[in-house]
Amino acid sequence: MTGPYECAALGCTSVRRLVNHWFVVYVDSSGIHIYEWDNAPDRAMEDGSHFCGVAHTMAYVSKKLTPETRQDPARESTLELKPPLTREGKESE
Questions:
Q1: Is the pTM of this model over 0.70?
Q2: Residue 1: which pLDDT band, with cuts at 50, 70 and 90?
Q3: What is 26-78 written as a DSSP string?
Q4: In degrees, to the nearest 5, what angle opens at C-alpha 30 toward C-alphas 22 and 20?
Q5: In whole angstroms, what is the distance from residue 93 CA to residue 90 CA?
Q6: 5 near 15, Cβ under 8 Å?
Q7: What percent of the chain has pLDDT over 90?
Q8: Pairing mode, strands 23-28 and 49-51
Q9: Which of 5, 62, 71, 1 is nearest to 32 (CA)?
Q10: CA–CA separation, 53 vs 71, rounded Å?
Q11: Structure letter (DSSP) for residue 24
Q12: Which residues face 36 on adjacent strands?
C-alpha cells in the first residue's frame, strides 16, 4: 500500500502529511503491535491500520482488545453509553 495514507478511524478524514505524528497498528497471531510511523516495518505499513494520532490509535486498540459483545452483552466494558442516558439507562437530569 502506498500513500496517500488516510486515518482508519471511523469518521476521520485525515490524510497523512509529513509533519504529522501518525501510528501504525498491526494485528497478527502474536498480538497487537503499535509502531510509530517512522519505525513501522514494511509488513505493518502494507497490512496494518494507519492512525492520525494517539487518541484514534488507542480507541482502535481498545476495541480490538475488548471481547465480543455477543459473549456477554451485559459486560460493562462493551456497553456504549450515549447521552442523555445515565449508567442505569435512565435519562439524565
A1: no
A2: very low
A3: EEETTEEEEEEGGG--HHHHHHSEEESSHHHHHHHHHHHHSPPTTT-TT-GGG
A4: 0
A5: 9
A6: yes
A7: 43
A8: antiparallel
A9: 62
A10: 30
A11: E
A12: 23
